[in-house]
Automatic annotation (TrEMBL), chain A:
<protein>
    <recommendedName>
        <fullName>DNA replication complex GINS protein PSF3</fullName>
    </recommendedName>
</protein>
<feature type="domain" description="DNA replication complex GINS protein PSF3 N-terminal">
    <location>
        <begin position="21"/>
        <end position="58"/>
    </location>
</feature>
<dbReference type="Pfam" id="PF05916">
    <property type="entry name" value="Sld5"/>
</dbReference>
<dbReference type="InterPro" id="IPR010492">
    <property type="entry name" value="GINS_Psf3"/>
</dbReference>
<dbReference type="InterPro" id="IPR055221">
    <property type="entry name" value="PSF3_N"/>
</dbReference>
<comment type="function">
    <text>Required for correct functioning of the GINS complex, a complex that plays an essential role in the initiation of DNA replication, and progression of DNA replication forks. GINS complex is a core component of CDC45-MCM-GINS (CMG) helicase, the molecular machine that unwinds template DNA during replication, and around which the replisome is built.</text>
</comment>
<comment type="function">
    <text>The GINS complex plays an essential role in the initiation of DNA replication.</text>
</comment>
<dbReference type="Pfam" id="PF22466">
    <property type="entry name" value="PSF3_N"/>
</dbReference>
<dbReference type="GO" id="GO:1902975">
    <property type="term" value="P:mitotic DNA replication initiation"/>
</dbReference>
UniProtKB/TrEMBL annotation, chain B:
<keyword id="KW-0235">DNA replication</keyword>
<dbReference type="InterPro" id="IPR005339">
    <property type="entry name" value="GINS_Psf1"/>
</dbReference>
<comment type="function">
    <text>Required for correct functioning of the GINS complex, a complex that plays an essential role in the initiation of DNA replication, and progression of DNA replication forks. GINS complex seems to bind preferentially to single-stranded DNA.</text>
</comment>
<protein>
    <recommendedName>
        <fullName>DNA replication complex GINS protein PSF1</fullName>
    </recommendedName>
</protein>
<feature type="domain" description="GINS subunit">
    <location>
        <begin position="19"/>
        <end position="87"/>
    </location>
</feature>
<comment type="similarity">
    <text>Belongs to the GINS1/PSF1 family.</text>
</comment>
<dbReference type="Pfam" id="PF05916">
    <property type="entry name" value="Sld5"/>
</dbReference>
<dbReference type="InterPro" id="IPR021151">
    <property type="entry name" value="GINS_A"/>
</dbReference>
<feature type="domain" description="DNA replication complex GINS protein PSF1 C-terminal">
    <location>
        <begin position="103"/>
        <end position="154"/>
    </location>
</feature>
Length: 199, 155
């Protein structure tokens, strides 16, 4: 297995966010429908009261008393019923690629439906986990795009992790564990057509 | 500074502005978070290059680094070097070598691109020409393999 030297900041667990995590920044960029509860003088781009606006979720966090948030469709009762019925049929990538991450962050907004939302998030993950793990541990040397295209980002990360373990084990079995390899970081920089290293 | 703005807004009876101040401040904090995370991620990648490439970065990578990053890399190198020197009871140990347990002293390598002349310890000079194969001491080749110049050939 290739030892990784580049260790990016991981997304936070559950309702936690990591300030420096690029994944968490991207997920909090998802837009939420909100309603403004008061006027914002001198900020021309916001209208008063009943206008429904979309604002990136990360901006909302500190504005609780002044804005109210509506739950995105995916976390509302209609979709929750679908998820509870059979979590495996849903395309979680299409339903906002950060389904679990954003869902966990939505719990901060103290909606009365929080217990149901949390329950659905958890049960969906559990329902899909078995199939994801199986496919990540058994797809060796093949095109996995069909397996991966309906996964949310957290599931994709787990899938990649599983694949890396599988590949490492296979390469060990073939006696290739002691083979020295080029650094993947270096290969990536090469692929982006940078000039060759002067000797 | 939003705190002073906030209190002077209250003082002057312009508390209607507070919501705007808060929202604008929120946007600024968001931008700050994005910039900080971006710069931090760059540092993580630069640090990884020390381990995966070596202590001298190629000119094209250095070209894309700002002066502070170059300085950071040089200080990181120094910290790593003094740490390595202190290992093994003061004798020093290069922990960037032998990242995979070595199986033999010499290995077969193939040259992936022209790299010019290469001197090994007994004074012999090898010409690293593309597609040539050589039987060389493992520790001499390790860095060149990582850099993608040589390829480790397994029999």
């Amino acid at each position: 297995m290739d030892t990784q030297s580049y260790l990016p900041v991981q997304p936070g667990v559950g309702m936690q966010e990591n300030f420096l995590s690029l994944d968490d920044i991207l997920l909090s960029h998802e837009r939420l429908p909100i309603r403004t509860e008061c006027a914002f003088p001198r900020l021309g781009y916001l209208e008063k009261a009943t206008d429904a606006q979309d604002i990136p979720q990360g901006l909302y966090e500190r504005k609780r008393r002044v804005l109210s948030v509506e739950l995105p469709k995916v976390y509302r009762e209609g979709w929750r019923t679908v998820f509870n019925a059979d979590p495996n049929v849903v395309d979680l990538h299409k339903m906002g690629p950060y389904y679990y991450g954003l869902g966990s962050q939505m719990l901060h907004f103290d909606s009365p439906e929080n217990p149901e939302i949390a329950q659905t998030l958890l049960q969906t993950f559990i329902g899909r986990f078995r199939r994801n793990m199986d496919s990540s541990q058994n797809a060796y040397n093949e095109d996995t795009s069909a397996l991966v295209e309906r996964l949310d980002c957290l599931e994709k990360f787990l899938f990649t992790s599983g694949q890396s373990g599988l590949n490492g084990f296979q390469s060990w079995e073939k006696g290739r564990a002691s083979q020295l390899t080029a650094s993947s970081l270096v290969l990536n920089y090469r692929k982006r057509k940078m000039a060759d290293v002067p000797p | 500074d939003p705190l002073t703005l906030h209190s002077s807004a209250k003082a002057e009876g312009r508390s209607d502005l507070i919501a705007s101040i808060k929202l604008r401040h929120c946007c600024l904090l968001r931008n700050q978070r994005c910039v900080t995370a971006y710069l931090y991620d760059r540092l993580l990648r630069i640090r990884a290059l020390r381990w995966e490439y070596g202590s001298v970065l190629p000119a094209n990578v250095r070209f894309h680094m700002c002066a502070e990053e170059v300085q950071w890399f040089s200080q990181y190198k120094k910290s790593l070097a003094s740490f390595m020197r202190s290992l093994g009871g003061g004798e020093g140990l290069d922990i960037t070598q032998d990242m995979k347990p070595p199986k033999s002293l010499y290995i077969e390598v193939r040259c992936l691109k022209d790299h010019g002349e290469f001197e090994i310890d007994d004074g012999t000079v090898i010409l690293l020409k593309k597609n040539s194969q050589h039987f060389l001491p493992r520790w001499k080749c390790e860095q060149l393999i990582r850099q993608g110049v040589l390829e480790h050939v397994m029999s």
